[in-house]
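Attaching the record inline, Q. Sequence:
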Amino acid sequence: MSPTTPPATAPAAQTAEPGGMRRIATASFIGTAIEFYDYYIYGTAAALVLNEAFFPELSKTAGTLATLSTFAIGFAARPLGAAVFGHYGDRVGRKAVLVVSLLMMGLSTGLIGLLPGYATLGVWAPVLLVLLRIVQGLGLGGEWGGAALMAVEHAPKGKRGLYAAAPQMGSPVGYFAATLTFLAMSSLLDEASFESWGWRIPFLLSFGLVAVGMVIRLKVAETPAFAKVTEQHETAKAPLVEAFRRHPKEMLLGAGMITVVYVMFYTAATYCMTYTTTTLGIPKNDMLALTLVAVAVLGLSTFVVARWSDRMGRRKLIIAGAAFGVVWGAVLFPLLDTENYVLVAIALSGALLCMGIIYGPAGAYMPELFGTRMRYSGAGFSYNLGGVLGGAAAPLIVTALAESHSPAVGGWFLSGMALLSLLCVLALPETKDRDLDLV
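Structure, as predicted:
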């Protein structure tokens, strides 16, 4: 072969046809929508009923902290899931590990719906709940990185932000479905029935959802970027180690950048639900309905800003979102404390708007920071490390600050975490014009 002859592997690097891209976008979206539906129904249940079902021996505050701790345990498992799934995703392929991650997440969620409570199993009930949460966390730890790569590595260079919006939209759609399901159960059932068995229905629905997701994902081809690396025998032996060696700044600063997304979302979705329904006395059905408004804001901002990032760049939009979070953390709880439904909806919507502005571009931005050989491991681990800092710790810290000082102090914590994310993204480069094969 002459030096000017195209290599035999060149066709593998081509992007998918428009019809194929629609199928790929659907596969990326459906998996993350199901995954996040699973995770969010746990967050909603943790805020509303799980403390009574699994920790009835504890006081209300201690039970809430214990339930939020099981929520945090799932996040602690996510970097491990990202490391394991990322390793095989970078060595075996994106598609295969995405199927396994979906099964782990969906089946463990369904089993939570079947798990007897403390009254039946005693101390074994919370123990088994924790184990299922760990499996959930492992599955979700491997999910996001693979779904984002499936979209980004198939997409044309100038449309990576647009196609990466597909897995990002799984978050608001999954959360909307979870909230709507809980609202339906809570509205159709009396209080006793809902707390006894009604809360289990959203979990049991996961069995059917995962079957749908499996059918869709099994029909999607491997990404061209990974196929090219495989054909050229260039897969990394230890991709996570290589990611830390070649891109240490991107690994750590990427985690710090994404932290505010988790902080804003899980504070709004979990602690704010508990705070408004127990401390402020707002009926839970009303809060679920107000949350739907905020989730619609999240979905719209995620898609619009992801699309803008192909033209304006990822970095400057993420900077704007983090700066907005610095301000909004300070006003979140004062708005909630008014107990005015319009202002409560604005408070939650502002928190999720901050998330959407950052989360939309992040679907393309974080994979673009890493080379193909270690992209699954690098992007996935960095993303989920940010989840431990933001999603696991934030609800616990905000709860503790609110109990020991005041909710406003918890809001200042949110502002501080947004400032941390702002400083991290300021130290990272723009990536929208990068060639994925040359990172």
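Confidence is low (pLDDT under 50) at residues 1-15. The two ends are 26 Å apart (CA to CA).

More tomorrow.
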